[in-house]
Design goal:
The chain has 157 residues and is α+β, with helices and mostly antiparallel strands. The chain has one domain: Peptide deformylase (Peptide Deformylase, Alpha-Beta Complex), CATH 3.90.45. The chain has 3 helices and 7 strands. β6 and β7 form a beta hairpin. The chain binds nickel (II) ion (NI). Nickel (II) ion (NI) binds next to α2.
Length: 157
C-alpha cells in the first residue's frame, strides 16, 4: 500500500532468473488477476526487486525482469490511471505515447518490445514502482495533495 517503505525505495536488479524467480513472476500474475489489475510490480508485494508483470485485455501475460526503457516517443498521451497500491484513486497522467523496452522474461531470455497505447502506459507505470514512484507523483503538487487527502479520508482501510 501507498506509504510502505519498499514502495518508496529503488528496487535491486534480479541477478539470476531461475525457477524461483519464474515462480515469483507467476505468483505475481495470480495476485494481479485476483485484484483485477493489469500490472503489478514487485515492490507492491513487498519485494525490492526489478520485476513487474503486465497483462492487458486481449494480450498474453508479460514478465519483465530488469526492464529499461531504451527509447520513448516525443508524442505524449493522457490516460486515467489507477494503482492496486492506492485503491479507489484515479487520475489523468501524461506520459510518452510509445516506448521501446528492453528486459528479460521468466525464462531468462532477453527481449526488446515496442509498446504503444495501454501496454506502453502500464509498462511505464510499473517501471515507476521500481524507482519508488507512484502515478500521483506525476501530478502537479496541489492536485496530488488533494487526491491524497481524499484517499486518507475515504479509502484507507
Ligand atoms: Ni501501480
Amino acid at each position: 500500500m501507498y506509504g510502505d517503505e519498499v514502495l518508496q525505495g529503488t528496487a535491486a536488479p534480479v541477478r539470476v532468473i531461475d525457477a524461483a524467480a519464474a515462480k515469483l513472476a507467476r505468483d505475481m500474475l495470480d495476485t494481479m488477476r485476483a485484484g483485477k489489475g493489469i500490472g503489478l510490480a514487485a515492490p507492491q508485494v513487498g519485494l525490492a526487486k526489478r520485476l513487474f508483470v503486465v497483462q492487458i485485455a486481449g494480450d498474453v501475460p508479460r514478465v519483465f525482469f530488469n526492464a529499461k526503457i531504451v527509447q520513448q516517443s516525443e508524442e505524449t498521451a493522457k490516460y486515467e490511471e489507477g494503482c492496486m497500491s492506492l485503491p479507489g484513486i484515479y487520475a489523468d497522467v501524461v506520459r510518452p505515447a510509445a516506448v521501446r523496452v528492453h528486459a528479460w522474461n521468466e525464462k531468462g531470455r532477453a527481449f526488446t518490445l515496442d509498446a504503444e497505447g495501454l501496454l506502453a502506459r502500464v509498462i511505464q507505470h510499473e517501471l515507476d514502482h521500481l524507482h519508488g514512484l507512484m502515478f500521483i507523483d506525476h501530478l502537479p503538487q496541489p492536485k496530488r495533495k488533494r487526491i491524497l487527502k481524499v484517499w486518507e479520508e475515504k479509502f484507507r482501510a
